[in-house]
Amino acid sequence: MHFTPNSNALKGLAKAEGLDAVIAMSPENFTYASGAYILTVKAIRPRQAYAVLPAAGAPFAVVCSIEESLTRDESWIDDVRVYTEFVHNPIDALVAEMKKAGLTKGRMGIDLDYLPATSFARLTAALPGVEFVNTTETIAAIRAIKSTDEVALMERTTKQTHQAVLDAMAASKLGDTEYDMAKKIAMNILDYGADGTLFLCFASGERTPHPHAYAQPDIRPKAGDLIRFDVGGSYGAFSSDFARTYSAGSPSAMQKQVYSGLIACETAVIEAVRPGVTAEDLFYLCKEEFGKQGLKFHMPHIGHSFGIELHESPMLRPGDKTPLKPGMVLNIEPGCKDDAGHLYHSEDLVVVTETGYRLLTLGIAPRELPVIGQKIAV
Amino acid sequence: MHFTPNSNALKGLAKAEGLDAVIAMSPENFTYASGAYILTVKAIRPRQAYAVLPAAGAPFAVVCSIEESLTRDESWIDDVRVYTEFVHNPIDALVAEMKKAGLTKGRMGIDLDYLPATSFARLTAALPGVEFVNTTETIAAIRAIKSTDEVALMERTTKQTHQAVLDAMAASKLGDTEYDMAKKIAMNILDYGADGTLFLCFASGERTPHPHAYAQPDIRPKAGDLIRFDVGGSYGAFSSDFARTYSAGSPSAMQKQVYSGLIACETAVIEAVRPGVTAEDLFYLCKEEFGKQGLKFHMPHIGHSFGIELHESPMLRPGDKTPLKPGMVLNIEPGCKDDAGHLYHSEDLVVVTETGYRLLTLGIAPRELPVIGQKIAV
Prior knowledge:
alpha+beta; six-stranded mixed β-sheet; 34% helix
């Protein structure tokens, strides 16, 4: 699934930052900067790839021979240089190509939040005239504003995943195992258009407090048990990220109340999304709404930007004073625990518009705790 | 899906290496050293987790609060210490816990092939009395020898994936799109027991030279086209990795010959697997067999160890002189191009035994190029 990176912003980036070049090489920054979705930059980390964006001169990419043809096919960067894995260290190949391009002195940006310590030591030893600065977040800030194409893609994939969940849970029943239900979700995610699954966290009852537990083949949620899941499909370089809470049957009054309170808080946060509001404003608003609903607040963050990386900047956390801007895409995902310590969670995707927000899921979860087997109108 | 790491080797590791402590923190080394499968150590990289294995004293883990309960549930390390994301930098939390444990001077190992440059700078500034050395490969060497449990798990998941492929390709027919076929494989992988998909590379005809291309919804392989795919399911911390080549129909004599030659080479390499043979021996044997079959050899490696990491050590590449040992699990995966530049590829998993090898797939691919729609006997 192709997408069009903001190549104008990328071409001008080094100059705008007062740098001689910017080198994008974390999996997300390389993918975004090159526009090429090379599976192995994430899956086989030693096979590093670099998109070099000089202040003067044309950008070029350095990739291993195995990924050359796909990079040429997908990237807007025409100049693709190649190293042979195990014959050349990727850093040595990068340095050789930088020397050819005259990039041997000055200040340059690279993803120091990703570049491994051994690679950084090799790079600085080979280029003693270069001062490297960390531009991980500089490129992430460009990624934070999604193009119309990216928003359309994310809306489609998120709605597919939401529908996959609705249909799977409507088709589930008391007596099914956690694994049965999670498998229905996963199969629907694939069937409705994903090219793979990214993660499927699924737990019921006493295991709900593990945010990233996996479905168990021997656990059959009983009447009165909560079911909580957080799932994502993969769609080329993009993915989906979606969470809901259900009851296995006969929810208690306490469970209904906690759940309704959580959805009220989530709704209030979503309705507060608009340009100028900061990321931490939404965090503190959520905390305040929890207080109003009598819910215990325990989260380090209540949501995150979303794109080709699962958690992007800005994060909806204390201390992140980034003002929201049109084109930012955010997952709002508060969670809370009841007196038994069981976890409730709901997550929806929104895009910041010129005047407020637009929901990218099919709809916020119903205010009343849904029970498996129910059809939910959206 | 739980597994039992070699905790005895881990407990004795620092002492055996002459170090005061070893800190496992790459996604694979943390997962292996802790025995806890925490999705986010890979999926959300800033949320670092550490398994600290001192030469003297008990091991402890440092994880973020979100992952505390799952770590306590799954890890053999009882002492789990916790930091709050966005309140404490993970490195600061690690340093604070190391100070409490008296680990403030001496030589210590950490995964410098993974630890980002910014984290390493923060760590060394906070612990000026410690000399850090790279133990990424030291822990990987322990991981290289699989336990009986791990081999049984990998055999089961690989056979499931192989069967998923056989059934999907038998159910495919001329006129189906690449996407139709890849989706059948993915759905079968899930249906037969995976908890997700890891990757699904699929291409036909002129796109086969891209090793990691994705299936296209608008390409319908024609009679005479090759179809090549490399797919993996995820099974908790483990996965599968399996490749095959098919014809869409009416293969040419040249295609049949190239394909048969490739399978002959793969078979010869597999049959040469036994303790004492080195990783590069298998690479050079493969190259020699290619010559005998009149095939062009272009690969940087012809296979890799496999475990909780996709490419583990040893790699079947020139320069890797690691002698094979019983318990190593290897993917043998030669590939070659025909005169049209189209790519053929076949991949099987074997475990090194005391006397040779045991195949973990359902069987090596048939010597004759299979055609979609055919049932293949295994």
